[in-house]
Amino acid sequence: xxxxxxxxxxxxxxxxxxxxxxxxxxxxxxxxxxxxxxxxxxxxxxxxxxxxxxxxxxxxxxxxxxxxxxxxxxxxxxxxxxxxxxxxxxxxxxxxxxxxxxxxxxxxxxxxxxxxxxxxxxxxxxxxxxxxxxxx
Length: 136
Description:
mainly alpha; Arc Repressor Mutant, subunit A
Protein backbone atom coordinates (compact mmCIF):
# COMPACT_ATOMS: atom_id res chain seq x y z
CA UNK A 1 0.00 0.00 0.00
CA UNK A 2 1.26 3.46 -0.92
CA UNK A 3 -0.24 6.86 -0.45
CA UNK A 4 -0.98 8.63 -3.72
CA UNK A 5 0.98 11.52 -5.13
CA UNK A 6 -1.98 13.75 -4.22
CA UNK A 7 -1.78 12.71 -0.56
CA UNK A 8 1.98 13.37 -0.59
CA UNK A 9 1.38 16.83 -2.08
CA UNK A 10 -1.36 17.51 0.46
CA UNK A 11 1.06 16.76 3.30
CA UNK A 12 3.67 19.06 1.76
CA UNK A 13 1.09 21.84 1.34
CA UNK A 14 -0.04 21.51 4.94
CA UNK A 15 3.52 21.53 6.30
CA UNK A 16 4.29 24.64 4.24
CA UNK A 17 1.23 26.39 5.66
CA UNK A 18 2.05 25.25 9.20
CA UNK A 19 5.43 27.03 9.01
CA UNK A 20 3.69 30.41 8.84
CA UNK A 21 2.25 32.47 11.68
CA UNK A 22 -1.36 31.63 12.39
CA UNK A 23 -3.78 33.18 9.99
CA UNK A 24 -1.16 34.18 7.41
CA UNK A 25 -2.25 33.59 3.84
CA UNK A 26 0.21 32.13 1.33
CA UNK A 27 -0.24 32.48 -2.41
CA UNK A 28 -0.85 29.18 -4.20
CA UNK A 29 1.95 29.95 -6.64
CA UNK A 30 4.40 30.42 -3.77
CA UNK A 31 3.45 27.07 -2.23
CA UNK A 32 3.67 25.36 -5.63
CA UNK A 33 7.13 26.83 -6.27
CA UNK A 34 8.50 26.02 -2.81
CA UNK A 35 7.22 22.45 -2.84
CA UNK A 36 7.65 21.60 -6.53
CA UNK A 37 3.95 20.93 -7.05
CA UNK A 38 2.26 21.68 -10.39
CA UNK A 39 -0.03 24.65 -9.73
CA UNK A 40 -3.16 23.07 -11.25
CA UNK A 41 -2.65 19.95 -9.14
CA UNK A 42 -2.09 22.12 -6.06
CA UNK A 43 -5.41 23.90 -6.64
CA UNK A 44 -7.30 20.59 -6.87
CA UNK A 45 -5.61 19.32 -3.72
CA UNK A 46 -6.29 22.56 -1.82
CA UNK A 47 -9.94 22.27 -2.82
CA UNK A 48 -10.16 18.79 -1.23
CA UNK A 49 -8.40 20.04 1.91
CA UNK A 50 -10.81 22.98 2.13
CA UNK A 51 -13.86 20.70 1.91
CA UNK A 52 -12.67 19.08 5.16
CA UNK A 53 -11.92 22.41 6.85
CA UNK A 54 -8.17 21.81 6.96
CA UNK A 55 -7.47 24.94 4.90
CA UNK A 56 -9.28 28.15 4.12
CA UNK A 57 -8.93 29.85 0.76
CA UNK A 58 -9.16 33.55 0.09
CA UNK A 59 -9.69 35.06 -3.35
CA UNK A 60 -8.39 38.33 -4.67
CA UNK A 61 -5.14 40.26 -4.82
CA UNK A 62 -4.28 39.36 -1.23
CA UNK A 63 -5.66 35.86 -1.74
CA UNK A 64 -4.18 32.50 -1.04
CA UNK A 65 -4.42 29.65 1.41
CA UNK A 66 -4.10 29.34 5.18
CA UNK A 67 -4.64 26.60 7.72
CA UNK A 68 -8.26 26.07 8.66
CA UNK A 69 -7.39 25.12 12.22
CA UNK A 70 -4.28 25.17 14.40
CA UNK A 71 -1.33 23.06 13.24
CA UNK A 72 -1.41 21.30 16.61
CA UNK A 73 -4.83 19.86 15.77
CA UNK A 74 -4.01 18.43 12.31
CA UNK A 75 -2.42 15.01 11.80
CA UNK A 76 -1.14 13.11 8.78
CA UNK A 77 -4.20 10.86 9.10
CA UNK A 78 -6.47 13.92 8.78
CA UNK A 79 -4.67 15.05 5.64
CA UNK A 80 -4.68 11.64 3.95
CA UNK A 81 -8.37 11.13 4.76
CA UNK A 82 -9.19 14.57 3.30
CA UNK A 83 -7.81 13.65 -0.11
CA UNK A 84 -8.18 9.85 -0.17
CA UNK A 85 -11.23 9.24 1.98
CA UNK A 86 -11.21 6.97 5.03
CA UNK A 87 -8.11 4.80 5.25
CA UNK A 88 -8.90 1.11 4.78
CA UNK A 89 -6.35 -1.63 4.18
CA UNK A 90 -9.08 -3.72 2.56
CA UNK A 91 -12.66 -3.17 1.44
CA UNK A 92 -13.88 -5.21 4.42
CA UNK A 93 -12.49 -2.52 6.75
CA UNK A 94 -14.19 0.44 5.06
CA UNK A 95 -16.77 2.23 7.21
CA UNK A 96 -20.25 0.89 6.53
CA UNK A 97 -19.09 -2.13 4.51
CA UNK A 98 -20.97 -5.26 5.54
CA UNK A 99 -18.82 -8.27 4.72
CA UNK A 100 -20.72 -11.56 4.92
CA UNK A 101 -17.44 -13.40 5.59
CA UNK A 102 -16.35 -11.25 8.53
CA UNK A 103 -17.54 -13.58 11.34
CA UNK A 104 -15.50 -16.50 10.00
CA UNK A 105 -12.67 -14.77 8.12
CA UNK A 106 -9.29 -15.54 9.69
CA UNK A 107 -7.65 -12.58 7.92
CA UNK A 108 -10.10 -9.86 8.99
CA UNK A 109 -8.88 -9.55 12.57
CA UNK A 110 -5.23 -9.33 11.44
CA UNK A 111 -6.03 -6.62 8.90
CA UNK A 112 -8.15 -4.77 11.46
CA UNK A 113 -5.25 -4.75 13.94
CA UNK A 114 -2.86 -3.59 11.22
CA UNK A 115 -5.19 -0.79 10.20
CA UNK A 116 -5.67 0.29 13.81
CA UNK A 117 -1.89 0.38 14.33
CA UNK A 118 -1.36 2.40 11.15
CA UNK A 119 -4.05 4.91 12.13
CA UNK A 120 -2.59 5.19 15.63
CA UNK A 121 0.80 6.13 14.15
CA UNK A 122 -0.65 8.57 11.60
CA UNK A 123 -2.64 10.26 14.39
CA UNK A 124 0.20 10.28 16.93
CA UNK A 125 1.79 13.60 15.97
CA UNK A 126 0.40 16.86 14.69
CA UNK A 127 1.86 19.13 12.02
CA UNK A 128 3.20 21.25 14.87
CA UNK A 129 5.00 18.23 16.34
CA UNK A 130 6.50 17.37 12.96
CA UNK A 131 7.82 20.90 12.49
CA UNK A 132 9.28 20.94 15.99
CA UNK A 133 11.10 17.67 15.26
CA UNK A 134 12.54 19.02 12.01
CA UNK A 135 13.15 22.78 12.19
CA UNK A 136 14.56 24.41 9.07
